[in-house]
């Protein structure tokens, strides 16, 4: 029996976008929320490859240069540390490629970017029932239970935004 080939990690390319979008939808299915995922190829292409992208991506590819996993991330900023960090929006490895080291290599790549650029943090959220918690603990990631996430969306987001408009404080885009 041959052992699986170690994946290669590289920045995402425009030709990778359809595979990444498909994997985002696979991730939504895995997280039991497929009806909430509306990402299109056009949206992700624009986000990753516009003239001033705010989203970045890396893919894990197999020996045929086919994407088998991805990491989509963006910069955040710590006012306390005074430096940027990376926020990992999504990390996903296709079930057939799990155990190849793809997830670890994707995270190692982002950690390397942090270290080389002087960023102090690599952060992400994980759904509470995800079995990857053990893997994350094994690489030294710490659960931040003292921080509670909040989200404004839908009607609540529009209602709050209308208060800015009504007060005449709408900044220019």
CATH superfamily: Gcn5-related N-acetyltransferase (GNAT)
| Biggest pleated-sheet summary | 5 strands, mixed
The secondary structure category is alpha+beta
CATH architecture identity: 3-Layer(aba) Sandwich
Please write the string of helix (H) and strand (E) elements.
Answer: EHHEEEHEHH
C-alpha Rg (nearest Å): 18 Å
Average pLDDT for all residues: 93
Helix content class: 25-40%
Broad CATH class: Alpha Beta
- Rough shape? globular
Number of helices: 5
Major sheet: arrangement of strands? 1-2-3-4-5
Q: How much strand?
A: 15-25%
Q: What is the third-level CATH name, the topology?
A: Aminopeptidase
N-to-C span = 58 Å
Record field, number of beta strands: 5
Number of domains: 1
Poorly predicted regions are: none
